[in-house]
Amino acid sequence: MLSGKRILLGVTGGIAAYKAAYLLREFQKAGCEVRVTMTPSATRFMGTETFASLSRHSVAVEVFNDTDPGDSWTRHIQWGEWADLFVIAPCTANTLAKLVHGQSDNMLTSTVLAARCPVLICPTMDGEMYESPAVSDNLKKASKLGFYVLEPDTGYLASGLEAKGRLPEADDILTEAARIIKKHRIQGPLTGKKILVTAGPTREFMDPVRFISNPSSGKMGVAMADAARALGGDVILVHGPLSAQIPERVQTESFVSADDLFELVQTHADADIVIMAAAVSDFKPSSPSDQKTKKTGRTESLDLVQTPDSLAWLGEHKNPDQILIGFAMETENLIEGARAKLDKKNLDWICANSISDDGSGFGSDTNTIHLIGRESMQTFSGSKKDIASEILSMIFESD
After folding, report:
1. Which of 60, 81, 178, 322 could form a disulfide with 1 if both were Cys (CB 3.0 to 4.6 A apart)?
2. DNA/pantothenate metabolism flavoprotein C-terminal domain: which residues (predicted)?
3. How many whole angstroms separate alpha carbon 270 and alpha carbon 378?
């Protein structure tokens, strides 16, 4: 559930701030991308450099940052839209009070107001503070406002007392984070389904500077990934070099060659639905050179061999309940060629489009696709984004 998710980790000024570094690593081990925002007082316990190094992102502390004046003051908006979950651990009594009263005097509290994702608060403080009427009242207000609150553990505190107020163990926080993300994920016909989508071209290198490829932008595959996510799917987008923007909250892995793609397809072959929209080179140089090939003035020949056929392999190893969707691009005999590919490669559906049609094919924002099944065919025209949504809705909402 956490793999590929985007976690915004908020760290406030308590002694347990050092534990947030371990929590960050545990989220990363679970497959999450993590960014960190800290209150100014938190930097007295842990330096921003530690979290920047671990997260591989700059740490946001102040809304206005003289050392990074660019877009830093709008980061609370950007990160609030970016995250799947905002985890504030530890959360001090002071920050808790600010959250329930809507104050925004630093980057962390400002980002909470801008967040479009659920917020998990882990209150952590001395036992007497935690049991105080003001904190108890603020915790109730936080729950009423829609914040998730994970109660602290009981144990030995920094004050030397045994009481309730310790930051919960990382495993407990991750378990609660997964539960919240699962509760808030998009509900649709693909909810709970793992969707593998491939997109973009492959590159088959002849030497270190030249390769065989095609003009694919990856726009159609990216649109299919975004449409699958909108229907509730847990999407993994495996892509080559793209000129299309990757949609938010989609897990990605990249490839260069057809061999790279084949390895990734085998890794994710357990997907419930596979959408093979990548434009794969059918051939590669048999003996690529380690050095740049020099021009000699005489005619050169290039010996080619076939690349692995990922789609055929998937068809041969297809699970009974798996849905396999392929793509076919032709310059002639489009429908006949697509039907033959549907049968030969054991597909459930194939999306056929012609590179010869205006407003269709490589690089275009629009397309015309013939969706061909075993006993049906339907044509869709328009933007690639709209077509992707219509195709998946027709296939899966009609089931």
Report:
1. 178
2. 190-396
3. 28
Q: How far, in Å, CA of 45 to CA of 8, rounded? A: 19
Residue 371 neighbours by CB under 8 Å, 6+ apart: 349, 350, 351, 377, 378, 379, 380, 391, 394, 395
Percent of the chain scored above 70 by pLDDT? 97
Question: Is residue 282 part of an annotated ligand binding site?
Answer: yes
Flag the least confident range among 84-88, 142-146, 188-192.
188-192
Of the given ranges (86-95, 124-133, 158-167, 338-347), which has the lowest mean pLDDT?
158-167
Query: Which tokens sit at 352?
Result: 């056929």
Which residues sit opposite 169 in a β-bridge? none
- Residue 295 has a pLDDT of 83
- Residue 109 tokens, joined: 């509290």
Q: What is the DSSP string of 96-161?
A: HHHHHTT--SSHHHHHHHH--S-EEEEE---HHHHTSHHHHHHHHHHHHTT-EE-PPEEEE-TTS-
Which segments of 213-300 does DSSP mark as H helices, in order?
Answer: 219-230, 258-267
Instruction: Quote the pLDDT of residue 66.
Output: 62
Q: pLDDT at residue 191 above 70?
A: yes
Backbone dihedral angles phi then psi of residue 144, each to the nearest 5 degrees: -65, -30
Q: What is the pLDDT of residues 324-349, one digit of tens each?
A: 999 998 888 999 999 999 999 999 99
Length of the chain: 399
Is 183 a known ligand-binding residue?
no
pTM reported for the whole predicted model: 0.71
Residue 214 designated active-site? yes
- In this structure, of 21-30, 243-252, 297-306, the range with the lowest mean pLDDT score is 243-252
Catalytic position from the list 65, 106, 138, 214: 214
Residue 341 is labelled as binding a ligand: yes
345 is in an annotated binding site: yes
What domains sit in the chain, N to C, each tagged with a CATH number?
6-184 (3.40.50.1950), 194-283+306-397 (3.40.50.10300)
Enumerate long-range contacts of 364-367, CB under 8 Å, 24 or more apart: 364/219, 365/219, 367/220
19 is known to lie in a ligand binding site: no
- Pairing label, strands 304-306, 323-330: unpaired
